[in-house]
Amino acid sequence: TAQLRGLETADIVALGTNQMAGLGSAQLASLTTAQVAAFETADLAAIGTATLRGLGTAQVAALTTAQVAGLTTAQVAGLASTQIRAMETADLSALSTAQIGALTSTQLAALTSTQAAGLTTASLGALATAQIGGLGTGVLASLSTSQLTALTSAAVTALTTAQMAAFGTAQIAAFTTGQVAAMETADLAALSSTQAAAFTTAQLGAMSSSQINALFA
Question: Which domain of life is it from (predicted)?
Fold first, then answer.
């Protein structure tokens, strides 16, 4: 590990994919942030999923957007929650819909409200219903209206009562009629009177009688 740490960045770049694939997690953890940032995307993608978990939070934060975008879906799915939390917003924006789709609900739960800005509309639209439950209330409350409207109707249906209750009035007023129609009655019943008053006439018109009764019960 000491020998690896002593390598110049140019030497790191010169390493082949087979050499990179042969690194152990302890060796990977011993590298400096500058060395990690020098990895070529193909070389980084060759590292095993278990080995990649050896990267510390500072090393993950040092990854470039190109490197993050080059990770395989298996590598993304294998990242620890602490590593997910260490990603910069630009790195999250660089993730493809396939990579986002590989994230577990536990990994998504690690995201902070600051990182929420890095979630693209395409990424949010690609979230499966099983993933939605992992989004923290702080993250949801931080979503812009354009991000919010990117959620599929199925995703809105999958929101928990706690998640629905986290939305602000401006966010509630931004939901599309399709999204509103997909809201569960239990979720609507959990909203405050202030939140209920935020729904527009068009949104209310998209609701069923059961939804209306639940909202204003």
Answer: Bacteria
